[in-house]
Amino acid sequence: MRNGCPLFEKAISYDLLWNAGGCEAVDASQQWVLAAMQRHGPELVTMLWRILANEQDVCDAYQTTFVRLAHREDGQQPRHVRAYLFRTASNAAITMLRRRQVESKSLSNLGPCSCACERAERDFDTRHLAENLRRYIAELPDHLRSVVTLRDLGELPYREVARIMGISTGTARVYRCKAVQLLAAWMSKEEPS
Amino acid sequence: MKSLRSTVRSHMRGPSTSRAGSCRHTRQWFLAAIRRGLGPEAGWVQRHMASCPRCCRRAAAWRRVELGLRVVKSRPHGLSLLQKANAEAVRMLTHELRDTAQAHELTNPDPEQPFLGWAARHRHRLTNVAACVAILLLTRSGLFSSLNRLNRDGEAYVRHYYASQAGEDLAGEVFDS
To answer: Å from A66 to nearest chain B CA?
Structure first.
């Protein structure tokens, strides 16, 4: 996906350079970072994979998440490591997804649009459906998007989603419902008549 | 609604020791009742949807989103993705952290299933060895001698049939030559 996208590669390399610059601040007393990686890594990778569907992007978002955890301003372990990790990872992944969409849009503007005739056919393709859904999830307002990514893609219970977002469980349910309504409206607009 | 009232009443009268479990049961029952009466599967909702194209479109759009979410969830990632992601993340940490046993454990390929990884690498050799062992076991158990005996018995039966139908001379000519 990233091949042939110099802008994206440049952005990623700057990100890595920034990360590398801060490495010296971490010391051996921060072994809890590794413990967190061991404990929450599998779930995080699954969530990132569902958001991004690209192995290299998953690795980048995962790396960004743990480097941010290790380089927090106060250098202390956050009170809720799991909540911190899931929130940071979903934000990093959505940022990457949006960046990817902007790039693919600009690339499709450059080339001839050959996809119009295939649209109806592709609509039944599950991959196309998943891609569309990802695109629309990235366009949701922040609070709705967070609930959908944490609840549906991260498969966290509402209780935990509510704690991560600092809202009540009922509000989390309402946000999820609103998000699905919005996604349904956007997807049905896109549907060929 | 009547049964709901009776459930709630019995819950109110119930002993306080089992109140937590009773609360949970009541809540679950209540949610299920609401879903049955007001959910998309309820009869009156289905009847309305059959006659209202607007609601039908809206329900179809919701189902589409649910389907999309299911599709997204159903695609598994590669087995090595976690290890790859761990390796890349650990590489960005300091030497002190990178050199710990925990970090090695995180970045080792398939740390949970070392035997399966080894078995996958030596698949062909293992198959050959298993085939040889199976042949040896079959020989030891006398399967091959049983097959030979079966063959002999079958031949004798066919010879006897020919002898009775076409005569002993012809059978001897066919089978003894």
So the answer is: 7
Nearest to A37 among B73, B75, B89 (CB): B89
- Which structural domains are found in chain A, ordered by start? 30-190 (1.20.140)
Tens digit of pLDDT at every position of chain B (177 positions): 445 555 555 555 555 556 677 888 888 888 888 877 787 778 888 888 888 888 888 888 888 898 889 888 888 888 888 888 888 888 877 666 666 666 767 766 555 555 666 676 677 888 888 988 888 888 777 777 788 888 888 888 888 888 888 888 887 877 776
Phi and psi at residue B42, to the nearest 5°: -60, 145
- CB contacts of A127 in chain B (<8 Å) are 71
B65 is a domain residue: yes
Q: Give the residue ranges of DSSP H helices in B52-142.
A: 53-74, 81-91, 95-98, 101-107, 114-121, 123-140
B88 has a chain A CB within 8 A of its CB: yes
Can you give the pTM of this predicted structure?
0.60
CA distance linking residue A192 with residue A116, whole number of Å: 11
Count: domains in chain B = 3
B43 & B60 share domain: yes
Question: Does B118 map to a domain?
Answer: no
Mark whether B104 and B51 lie in a shared domain: no
Residue B96: list chain A partners with CB under 8 A.
26-28
Instruction: Report how far apart the first and last C-alpha atoms of chain A are (Å, whole number).
Output: 30
CA–CA–CA angle A70, A72, A75 (5° rounding): 80
| Closest in A48, A126, A188 to B61, CB measured | A188
B96/B33 same-domain check: no
Domain residues for the domain of B21 are 2-74
